Q: What sequence folds into this?
């Protein structure tokens, strides 16, 4: 069975956007059938180039392959997305995995 996961790595350049973002994104992930596997600042870098810092990581498991795209396009998310873009450097990956 194919599952879809989002892996997000983030380095905030300001903290102003984070409280509002967390409140909205948590509800939207649930609305679109996602489940957090982790949201953490507590991790060990095994292989990471020194010029690619990360402050926190997130992994979301989705109920279907279209859910992360629907979240990203959700009108309720647009202001929060803009705030994150303005206040952080982010790498966001969506991946399909063949799992049992």
A:
């Amino acid at each position: 069975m194919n599952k879809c996961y989002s892996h997000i790595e983030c380095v905030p350049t300001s903290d102003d956007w984070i409280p509002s973002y967390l409140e909205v994104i948590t509800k939207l992930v649930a609305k679109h059938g996602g489940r957090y596997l982790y949201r953490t600042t507590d991790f060990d870098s095994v292989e990471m180039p020194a010029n690619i810092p990360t402050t926190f990581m997130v992994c979301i498991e989705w109920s279907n392959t279209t859910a992360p795209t629907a979240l990203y396009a959700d009108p309720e998310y647009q202001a929060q997305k803009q705030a994150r873009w303005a206040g952080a450097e982010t790498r966001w990956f969506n991946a399909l995995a063949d799992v049992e």
Notes: The mean pLDDT is 91.
